[in-house]
Amino acid sequence: MAKTNTAAKPKSSGKTKPLKPQAKKQAPVDVQENQATAETDGIITDISWPDTNASDVMEATQNAITTSEALATQTESIVQISHNELQPFKGHPFKLRDDDDMKALVASVKERGIDQPVLVRPRDGGGYELIAGHRRQHAAELAGHTSVPCVVRKMTDDEAVLAMTESNLNHRSEILPSERAKALKMQLEAIKHQGSRGTKDNYGEVSKRSNEIVAERNRMSVKNTQRYIALNNLVPDLMQYVDEKKMKFITAVELSYIKPRNQQYIAVAIDAQQSTPSGSQAQRMRELDQQGVLNADVIDGIMCQEKKEEIRVILNSQELGKYFGAEKSPREMKEQILKLLDDWKSRQLPELDQPTKLQQPEK
Hints:
Elements (H helix, E strand, L loop, with lengths): L53 H20 L4 E5 L3 E2 L12 H13 L5 E5 L5 E5 L1 H9 L4 E6 L4 H15 L5 H21 L12 H8 L4 H9 L5 H8 L5 H7 L4 H14 L5 H13 L4 H9 L12 H4 L9 H17 L17
Parallel strand pairs: 2-4, 3-5
Antiparallel strand pairs: 1-5, 3-4
């Protein structure tokens, strides 16, 4: 007679507890769309098996599986976490400023509380790391709240960087050039890292260049994205001039390609002359630096030169499209425009080239 297979009876822990239905634990509010499955580690804890028959064991196991599947489809919960358990994001590029905007936010928190919870992730050493919502958490603390509503989410380092940078770049009303530069660089490195691992999070983007992905995510041109990332090569003194709007953005980008030692000389020259270089001067210094002949004396000489007023005439593609085909490059269009201007000037009357004389008043 064939033996009937039965489930092995698990060993008793020595303690007998009645089986209880598993408590439903809510999962976090913004579960990402690309999260196909949820981790079940830690969902079912401290199950003590009583001395019972195999059918009871199988039923309890099935209940546990059903509970974990249900938890995977639930939304994340919002919990109150005290300020002393929260740590700022490591390397957070955005500064907290107690300006008028912060005062208004504090007043709003006092009146209505926190409308949108902050996003945090558990830290290995205990407590939580702030991902998004540093200003809200700071405002809540200034308003006298002992805790702040939080969405707790397990995230990898790359996921945390992307969530932090996108939240701040899209929601802050005022962003310094240095802050945007650092955030875009962090985002670029996270995307490169994800691309090298080929994760499902960046499926469909792996074939694109990383800087193109960053540009698309921030609604910027690729060229402008590259310019901001280049600013990270500026020495602190020059970056401060940019943040304080004492140096033009394009000038700063040119200087960012110069060796740090020569950048320091430029900062000293700016401080001595109380004047920042023009775009053409910055370009000249960059060229000489690449040739290996730029030094403190050359920098002083260039900075002492009289700055020529730069004249810019901007024509958009729609305006130029009336006269040039789509196959023409910007350089070709510029050369053609200058040639036409030379032809036009050569046909003008000679007196147009002479300086205008002031008429003598009649006697």
